[in-house]
Design a protein that fits this description.
Blueprint lengths: L13 H22 L13 H9 L6 E7 L5 E6 L4 H24 L7 H24 L5 H16 L4 H22 L6 H30 L4 H4 L4 H20 L7 H18 L67 E2 L4 E2 L17 H4 L1 H4 L24
Antiparallel strand pairs: 1-2, 3-4
Helix pairs in contact: 1-3, 2-3, 2-6, 2-10, 3-4, 3-5, 5-6, 6-7, 7-9, 7-10, 9-10
Length: 405
C-alpha cells in the first residue's frame, strides 16, 4: 500500500504528531465502537484526513477523550478523538464502504488467497457486513453512501472496457474523495468551504490513484496485473507531471478553505503529500531513461535481483505500510499489500495500524546514522535557521507552521 499521507515522528513536530495520532486512534476506536473489533482492519492513514478536516474547520466538533492502554501504542494511554465525533464517524463510514468494495474486487478476480473457495466466501461475507455498516454510519452523519459505492463499482468496469485515458481512469477516485471532503464542511457547519474542499478532494484523489499506480507498477508487471499507467502508455515523466499538477491544484484549493486550526492540514496535505510524490519517483535516476513499468530487464524479470531501489536501500524518509484512497485494487482504499519493505526507518502495518514511532532513529544504511540529533532529524536538516520555534523536534522549525520555507 502506498498511502499518500504517512507521517512519522521525524516528519511532524511533537504537537502535530500527537494530533495526527489522536485522529488515527480515534478512527480506529470509532470503527470498533460502532462495528466491532474486526472493523478496525479498515483503518488507514489517508482516511483519517476526513477527521482532520472537520476538526480544522470547527475544533469544537471533534471532542477528545483519554483512551486506555493499547497494544498498538506500546500499552500506553493517549488523548484521542472521541468515537462520537462526526468527523471520525464519517472517516469510518468511508473506510468501511471502500474497503468492502475492494474486498469484493479481490474475490471476483480470485487474487492470491481469494482464489480459495473458503477464503472467498469469508471475505464476501465480511465485505457485505462492512458495506452495510458503512452505509448506516454514513447515513447517520448525513452522507449518502451511494457515491462511494458507485465509484467502487465503476472502477473495474472502466478498466475492463479498455481504451480509456488516464483522466477517465482516475475519475471515480476523484469523485469519491471530492464527495467525502466536501461533506466535512457540512459536518463542521462551514458550507462555504464545500466547493473548495470538493476541488481539493478531486486533486487528492487523482494523486492517490497515480501514486498507487507508480508504487504498484513493478509488482503489476511481474504478475501481469492491470496498471493504469501501463495500460495507457503513460511514461514516468508524464506521470510525474500529472502528480505535480494535482499537487498544485490541491494547494490552490486549500488556500480557499477557511480553517480555524490550519497547521495539521497544511502539514499533511502540503508537505507530507509533496514528500510522497518525491518518494514515489525516487527510484528513477532522472526521468529520461526507461521507466519502472517499461520492462527494461525483459518480460520475465522486470527488475534485477536487488529490486527497484538502489543497493543502499529505499529513501530514508519512506515509512512502510499505510493505506490510501481509491486506486486500481488492493486492501483498504488502495494498494496491493501492507508488508513494509525491510530497512525502512518506520515499520508500519496498516491492517492492525501498528506504527512504531522512531523519533530520530536512522537505520544502518543511512548516511546520518551515528550523527548528532540535529543531523539525524529530517526537519532540522532542512531548516534554514531563520526562525526559532518550540516544536519539540530537535529544536527544528520546518515541521511547524511558523513561517519557515
Amino acid at each position: 500500500m502506498f498511502g499518500v499521507v504517512r507521517p512519522c515522528r521525524h516528519g511532524l513536530c511533537g504537537t502535530l504528531f500527537k494530533d495526527w495520532m489522536a485522529h488515527l486512534c480515534g478512527l480506529c476506536l470509532a470503527l470498533r465502537a460502532e462495528h466491532g473489533q474486526a472493523a478496525r482492519l479498515a483503518t488507514n492513514y489517508d482516511g483519517l484526513l476526513v477527521s482532520v478536516l472537520v476538526e480544522a474547520q470547527a475544533p469544537d466538533r471533534s471532542p477528545r477523550r483519554e483512551a486506555g492502554p493499547c497494544a498498538l501504542r506500546g500499552m500506553k494511554g493517549a488523548e484521542v478523538v472521541a468515537a462520537r465525533a462526526e468527523g471520525a464517524r464519517l472517516a469510518a463510514a468511508a473506510s468501511l464502504l471502500l474497503a468492502a468494495g475492494k474486498a469484493r474486487d479481490h474475490v471476483a478476480d480470485g487474487d492470491g488467497p481469494y482464489g480459495r473457495r473458503l477464503v472467498a466466501a469469508a471475505a464476501g461475507r465480511m465485505a457485505g457486513r462492512w458495506d452495510a455498516a458503512g452505509g448506516r454510519t454514513g447515513a447517520a452523519v448525513g452522507f449518502d453512501p451511494a457515491v462511494l459505492r458507485d465509484a467502487v463499482a465503476r472502477q473495474p468496469l472502466l478498466e475492463a472496457a479498455g481504451g480509456r485515458t488516464l483522466p477517465e481512469l482516475t475519475e471515480p477516485t476523484e469523485t469519491a474523495v471530492a464527495a467525502v471532503f466536501a461533506h466535512t464542511a457540512v459536518l463542521a457547519g462551514r458550507p462555504g468551504n464545500a466547493a473548495a474542499l470538493a476541488e481539493a478532494g478531486r486533486s487528492f484523489g487523482r494523486l492517490a490513484h497515480l501514486l498507487d499506480a507508480v508504487e504498484d507498477a513493478p509488482a503489476d508487471l511481474a504478475a501481469g496485473a492491470y496498471n493504469p499507467l501501463v495500460a495507457t502508455g503513460t511514461a514516468p515523466a508524464e506521470a510525474r507531471r500529472r502528480c505535480d499538477d494535482a499537487l498544485h491544484g490541491l494547494r490552490l484549493a486549500l488556500a480557499d478553505v477557511e480553517l480555524a486550526e490550519p497547521r495539521l492540514v497544511r502539514a499533511l496535505l502540503d508537505r507530507e503529500v509533496r514528500r510522497s510524490v518525491d518518494r514515489a519517483f525516487a527510484a528513477h535516476s532522472g526521468q529520461g531513461g526507461p521507466g519502472r513499468w517499461e520492462r527494461p530487464y525483459g518480460p520475465q524479470q522486470p527488475y534485477p535481483p536487488q529490486g527497484p531501489y538502489p543497493p543502499q536501500g529505499p529513501p530514508p524518509s519512506h515509512p512502510g505500510g499505510g493505506g490510501g484512497w481509491g486506486g486500481h485494487g488492493g486492501d483498504g482504499f488502495h494498494g496491493k499489500g501492507g508488508t513494509p519493505r525491510p530497512g525502512f526507518p518506520l515499520p508500519c502495518l496498516a491492517g492492525g495500524v501498528v506504527c512504531v514511532t522512531c523519533g530520530v532513529y536512522q537505520p544502518e544504511w543511512s548516511e546520518h546514522r551515528g550523527a548528532d540529533c540535529a543531523d539525524r532529524c529530517w526537519c532540522t536538516r532542512h531548516c534554514d535557521g531563520s526562525c526559532d520555534c518550540d516544536c519539540d523536534c530537535c529544536d527544528c522549525c520546518s515541521c511547524c507552521d511558523c513561517g519557515c520555507s
